[in-house]
Amino acid sequence: MNETLVTVVGNVATTPVFRELASGPVARFRLAVTARYYDAVQNVWADGHTNFFTVWAKRSLGSNVQGSLAIGEPVIVQGRLKVRDEERGGQHWTSADIDAITIGHDLSRGTSAFRRVLKANTALTEAAGAREPERDPEPEPVG
Fold first, then answer.
1. Does residue 11 contact residue 73 with C-beta atoms inside 8 Å?
2. Which helix (H) or strand (E) covers residue 53, if one does?
3. pLDDT reading at 140 higher than 70
4. Which CATH class is domain 5-127?
């Protein structure tokens, strides 16, 4: 229960890699997050240090990442932060991973077109001739 949840805003730094595993679909990509600050001496905004995170998306989120993200696109990622400290082959390294809960395009920096993914049981229901329930009409404006 004491997990570190983070929300980071950055750019997709690598092409998402998609794998179909026994446990389900998984996608991963690197996210570049660069701090911005105002340089009062030069009277301009400047880039600070860039942090890189490996983002892991599982199940349907992983499948949707595969068809939705490309290098350079601005995204917002929310998930569980996991910092790993390992030693392999005599080399010591640290990585910061995010086990993503949700990922979306940063609409303050561009536009995006959403496409709903039909689930398998929805497709079967539609194939059997079932209709989508009727929706309430739009309310009329009060005059």
1. yes
2. strand 44-58
3. no
4. mainly beta
Q: What is the DSSP string of 75-135?
A: EEEEEEEEEEEEEETTEEEEEEEEEEEEEEE-TTS------PPPPHHHHHHHHTTPPPPPP
pTM of the predicted protein model: 0.76
CA distances from 30 to 14, 19, 38, 111, 121 (A): 5, 15, 26, 22, 33
Helix (H) or strand (E) holding 61: helix 59-68
- 58 vs 27: CA distance, rounded Å: 6
57 with 82: CB under 8 angstroms?
A: no
Query: 3-state DSSP: the chain helix, strand, coil percent, rounded to 5?
Result: 15, 50, 35
The confidence band for 117, taking pLDDT boundaries of 50, 70 and 90, is confident
Kindly report, residue by residue over 10-43, the tens digit of the pLDDT: 999 999 999 999 989 999 999 999 999 999 999 9
Q: What's the CA gap between 129 and 119, in Å, rounded?
A: 16
**What are the extents of the domains in the chain?**
5-127
> Per-residue pLDDT tens for 72-109?
999 999 999 999 998 888 899 899 999 999 999 999 99
